[in-house]
Each structure stands twice: as structure tokens, then as C-alpha cells.
Design goal:
By secondary structure, this protein is an alpha/beta fold. The protein contains 15 helices and 14 strands. The structure holds zinc ion.
Amino acid sequence: MLRLFDTAVGDIVEIVPIAPGRFSMYVCGPTVYDLAHLGHGRYALVFDVLRRYLEWRGLKVRHVSNITDVDDKILERAEAENRSPSEVASEFEEKWFSTMAKLGVLKPHEIPHATAYVGQMVALIGRLLDEGVAYLGEDGIYFDVSKVGDYGLLARQSLESLKAGARIAEKDFKKSPMDFALWKFSDPSSWSWESPWGPGRPGWHTECVVMSVDLLGEEFDLHGGGLDLSFPHHENERAQAEAMHYKFSHHWVHNGFVMVGSEKMSKSLGNFTTLDELLETTDPRAYRLLVLQSHYRSPLDVNSQTVAEASRALSRLDSTCQRVLDAGVDMTSSQLDEEELQAFREAMDNDLDTPTATGRLFELRSKVNQLLDDGMLEEAGKACATMEHLFGALGLTLHGTEEAELPSNVKEIVERREEARSVKDFALSDRLRKELSDLGFAVEDTPSGPKVKRR
Ligand SMILES: [Zn+2]
């Protein structure tokens, strides 16, 4: 039985699906106004691993994740670049999915867009007004948090202590500094939608309530996202759902932050600001491995050193697989090692303990090498097949190095080196070999062309 840390309970709890054999999860998606950064990559990978693990356990998962395509930041960028908000949103949505594809993140089964749900949001806000839990303010419609008895649950704080910590509200028409906008009035000539209260735009916290309930029903298994979303975003979603008497999400799961240490993020320091920048020079699988090697609730340190360590660890896994292939072991008929499967399940069921699960798989790798050294090919095949299968369950495909899998900058250097060799510029060709070597790749010239391997 899977157990996860539920933010609403403040403890690890058993996850019992509402419908046996099925699992419904809603994960808050990106606001599409800029490129994905490392934190986005982490949450996407954490929930990808959770989904894959549930599927591996035989559950039929329905994974919904939205695109926030209405937001002030989208509008600001559109105005600065003199184009329409929808152009900005579709550009960054496309880039988001191309980056996610590089990371091997499975596409959600449903990808609702906020702009397609404005009508339903207006309807929900109308009902909240009717229920007496929302009120008209000077610049929009606000939710009255005092009407929700346990407001502050996901922050693990009472409303009183949240109020004490809040900045003095500059909007003195608000009943409480914690009250949040459901609808923001705007100039009809600007980006706006019609509503019974005048033209405006929806507040961010309403869209996920409307979209999750529309696609998953008033009750579903899990709502997730990065820790920064637990408060106020998720709490404000929960408050609206509570006011509507929805059962809503049974569990709330959040992943920890990405840290870049004390170093300022910059290219010259070898730190990375966007995911694409990282993936230009790093095998995307190495980032997945780095994410897997830390517990999802712990902070994750991403810097040139931790990325290089993950890349080396990945190379070792790949080269062991390559050794098994080179030894001519046929793994297609190999049975999987039941004891390893059981240990994997135990670790993963224990609040998704991927560091323990992957640690054990690294031990299995050592065992494969030992078995190969001892000439026990069949056993080596079984151990390697198990290792590949379990890493596969985590979304990490292992392989002997193939050119198709090389990072794009490495491929480019290999091509330039081939050109240099074709015009007999051996000085340049040697310099490029050195560049490849600095990046951790060895190139061997064979009659069928260059063969590149991770060292
Ligand atoms: Zn959300």
C-alpha cells in the first residue's frame, strides 16, 4: 500500500484510491509566460515518477494538469513585446511541452486551458456570491476566508496566525488581508472577459477548482504541485471547494524546492537558469536521476557539481548495460528478480523513497559487473534486466551509448570534427576531440564513422 506525506494532515498517510484500481490526480501546471526553469523540471519529474509508479503497480491513472494561459505576467510580456497575450501563451506552451518531452515526462491525459474555462469560473464565482462567501470589492470580487472554518490547513497555520504574519493590506476594503480576488475588473479595451459584474479577468485560484472538478469530478484522489503552491494557491482552491461543499481532493502532495546553493545562478559559474540551458549540455536522463536521488520532499541542490555527479552515475549504469550487451547476453528471456522487485515496492511505497530505491539499483549494477567478471552470464542477464526494468518504472531508460542519445552540443562537435577530418585539418580535429573529452565523451574513429561513448 502506497503511503505519502499529505500536507493537509501533516503526516504520512495510506493512499486508498476512491475507486479500486483507479487513481485520479490533478497537478497544477505552468503559467506560460516564460521558459521552464529547474523548479518546473523537478515538479514535473516528481509527479511523472508518481504517475509511472502507480501505473507500474497496476492502477489506471487519470492525470490532469492545466495550462494557465490567463495571467498578468502573460499580459505584461505581450505588452512589452507588442503582441497578443494568446501569442505569448501559445509560444511558451509549445516550448514547455518540447522541454518536457526532452525530459521524458509523460503528457497528462487532459490538459485544460484556463481561457477555455472562464465561463465556468464566472458561474462558480456567482455561486460563491450567492452562498455569501464572496463579496464585491472596489477592484473585483473577493473570497471571504473567514467563512471557511479551517482556513490555513495547508499552511499548517490558523487564520489568526496567518493574519498576524500578513502585511498590512493596502486595499482597506478587504475584510481580511487573507481574502483573495476571484475576479479582477479590467478595462474592457484591455484583455478581458464579460461577467455579470463587468469586464475583467479571473483570479488564478479559481481555475484549478473549476477544471479539476469538471474533469475529475467533485471528489478525486490527489492534488499536487510544488511546495510554493501549498499556500496560498492550494489553500485558496481548497477554500472555494469547501464553500461549494465539494469533497474535492482526498490528498495534497507537494515536492520540495530546487536550491542552487549560495552561488548566484549564471552561465559562467556552470549554473543553469532554464531547463533548456541545462539540457543543452546534459543528458536529460541525468536530471531525472538527480531528482530521483533526492527525496521528493527534500530540497534539491542543482549545481554543476551535482549535475556532473548524476551524469557520471548515469554513464556507469549505461556502460554496465553495454557490457552485458557486448558479452552477448540475451536479456529478452531473462526473468526478473522477485526479491529486487519487492525491495523496490517497499521503498517506493514508503513515501516514494526514490533515494533508497535507486541506491539499491546501483548495488544491483555492481552485482551485474561482478557476475560478468565471474562469467555468470545468465545471472548477470537476470540482474541487468531487473535493473533496467525498475529504472524503466521510474521513467529512466538505460542503454549503451548511441549517437541518437547524445546531447545536441556533443553531436555538433562530433560533426565539426568529421568535417575537419575530411579536409585533413588534424589540429582542429584534435582540439575537438579534447573538447569532447572535457565533456566526458570519448570518440573512436571506425571504418563506419566515429563511435562516441561516454567515458
Ligand atoms: Zn492550481
